[in-house]
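Forwarding these from the shared drive since the link keeps breaking.
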Amino acid sequence: MKERRFWKKWLPQRNGSFLCRRYCGSFGCGSGALAIAIAKRNPKAEVIGVDRWGKEYASFNKPLCENNAKAEGVENVSFRQGDATHLDFPDETFDTVASNYVYHNIPSKDRQAILLETLRTLKKGGTFAIHDIFSESKYGDMQAFIKKLKELGYEKVDLIDTTNGKWIRKSEAGWMGLSGSALLTGTK
């Protein structure tokens, strides 16, 4: 419940709806929860959830996502297998891209490159909300990355600490291994 309130508050919104005009991507969708939530709030949009569904998370798979969408009565969402390090979508495909606690799990020496791959699929004027463990050990200097995004023309780029009670408390983040959790938002 707390997670849903958080996304409702922090994902870019207009009149209580996520700003997803037509085509939205949810990367690392796992069980499909975020993709389904976006689709429910944007019934005229097409939402695609993408995940690699590997052996590490064997309980998550495409049929589970499809069953979850069906259980929620959501028909404007689909799911496909894919790799966040090389997304099989053309540049500027999506109006909105979102992710929740995904990229820190991907073995990589350059997770900022994974973020850039996600943002490559975002249309000019599109919005993004990526929640993850943005610690320096996992991502490097995020302030420098934000500066780079702004230099590339991104606007309203912000890294919002989510361990200050908006999602979880710092004490919870510590024992849950989520220290450094933050939400990266902005517009392309």
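-- next protein --
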Amino acid sequence: MMKINAFEQVQKLYEDSVQKKQDPFFAHEKEKGKAERAAVYQPSEEKAVTGTSAESKLSDEAKALLAKIREKYGNMDIMVGDFSTEEEAQAMLARGTKEYSVLFTSDELEKMAADEEYANENFNRIDEAVKTMQDIADQLAEEDSDTQIDRIGISFGSDGKMEIFAALREASDKQAERIEKAREEKAQEAKEDEKKAETEKTSPFADRAPRPEKTALVRASNLNELVEKIKEMNWDVIEAKYPPKEGGKIDFTA
């Protein structure tokens, strides 16, 4: 379940906005015009590059900006990776371990480092996404929805386009009700199945055994579309599967 209070540090972005003019990676921009900023950005032809490989080719200004972003969004996984498709972005975001992951291409970071106003626009988009997802998570809980938001991924492509990915899970209590109903139906079909179901209910290890669960991934290019997809999620058409042995955390390649 998303930890709604886990992202309070995000709001510090707005509180520190007045100090950004003194930041070293923006200081040089005060003496440069828009034409010079545009010259700083040189699109990369490399694709599907991530991690230290993608970060190593960043300019000093972009590296400084990346460090600041990671400091401000300390409860998120901030990644750098050059991708050309949504599938590549999903695969990179799947490497995250936190509830929120944000992926930038190296070209996008260079543009942000060269233009403070443009960087702030992207920061605002991240903040808006976080707030919206927090609100929808609260709303789902209040409505006793059968949908639970597990993780959120946000990617910024070299063209500035933002994509939002939401890894969803059927709520635990709804999942338990479905499993119990399935057991009852199975028990009515044959006495041996009934005996097996009763054994599972009374076994002290029943709760420890992995249970099949329903997970899904939805993605959208704007928040309104994403929220609509989350609310309209129909778990009846999703097949329940056992979680992977290494844990039940869903990734963005689902």
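The longest strand covers residues 147-156. The beta strands are 49-50, 77-82, 100-104, 147-156, 162-170, 215-220.

- D.
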